[in-house]
Amino acid sequence: MKKQHTPVFFEEAVEALDIQIGEKYIDATYGEGGHSRKIIASGGVLLAIDVDSAQVKKSDDNIHVVHGNFSDIESIAQNQDFTPVSGVLFDFGLSMAQIREGGKGLSFEKPLETLDMRLGDGISVAEYLEAVDHQSLTHALMKYSEDINSPQIANKIIQSRSSKKVQTVQDLKEIIDSVVHADMTTQKKSYARIFQALRIIVNDELEHIKKALQGAVNIVRPGGIIVVITFHSLEDRIVKSFARNNKNAVTEKVVDVGKMRTLASFERSATLRVLKKI
Ligand SMILES: C[S@@+](CC[C@H](N)C(=O)[O-])C[C@H]1O[C@@H](n2cnc3c(N)ncnc32)[C@H](O)[C@@H]1O
């Protein structure tokens, strides 16, 4: 029996989709399949997508999961003859299992792993850190980590790579440690921010989110719903400004789950937004 995990906003996200029996829904971030199973159990007809082939390979036999990027949601749905849909769910980020067991250097707690971090195509973090110029690295780390130590960390990366390639999780942690001398808690916060920034960069995550939201609006029927779970302010800002710039196409509301129940620790930085197509 496969170990089941409880996804973020498990009940609330599916409830917000307002599932109508027999209608079509897309789970654009299949992950471990928790939300997908709940959508099916609620009577929805489901198509799921995930960019990570390892997630698709281990998916449930009875769920149709397409290997692809959610930025292509419109063409994926059309190719699968799955339009229009009544709802789309995005649960951004990665699953804990993927971070801990993926073997791609996504967790700063796996020092021996190579800095890969690719979910789909493209170059690895190790390759990026070898090729990027100083100014671009500084700018990208500042923008995507929002860590005040970004310029110094970028300096150190550029200095270090001339004598030794930055290839493993441990290599990067040592560089961060050489800049951030404070206590372990502060160091861990910097690891988390810098690792997240590099993951965003090599997977072009924020651009894919922008395209995905537009694609979802294009395939949802009028009155249909797009539920979005974000994990950090960079993602959330994109969803918020998308809704603001598309007031003629969608209405938007935030569901304050924290007011409804006690949040689990992994849910505290998450936001649940619901867009409804006009
Ligand atoms: C937080 S997990 C989703 C968990 C899922 N809701 C569940 O119930 O198990 C996010 C998933 O989205 C996938 N993902 C991330 N970026 C993606 C993209 N651009 N296109 C498609 N899937 C993506 C990840 O590989 C991961 O499996």
From TrEMBL:
Its main location: cytoplasm. This is Ribosomal RNA small subunit methyltransferase H. The keyword Transcription regulation does not apply. It is found in: Cytoplasm. One of its GO terms (molecular function) is rRNA (cytosine-N4-)-methyltransferase activity. Belongs to the methyltransferase superfamily. RsmH family. Specifically methylates the N4 position of cytidine in position 1402 (C1402) of 16S rRNA. Keywords: Cytoplasm, Methyltransferase, rRNA processing, S-adenosyl-L-methionine, Transferase. It comes from Candidatus Roizmanbacteria bacterium CG_4_9_14_0_2_um_filter_39_13. S-adenosyl-L-methionine binds at residues 33-35, 50, 70, 91, 98. Gene3D superfamilies: Putative methyltransferase TM0872, insert domain, Vaccinia Virus protein VP39. InterPro entries: RsmH, SAM-dep_MeTrfase_MraW_recog, SAM-dependent_MTases_sf.
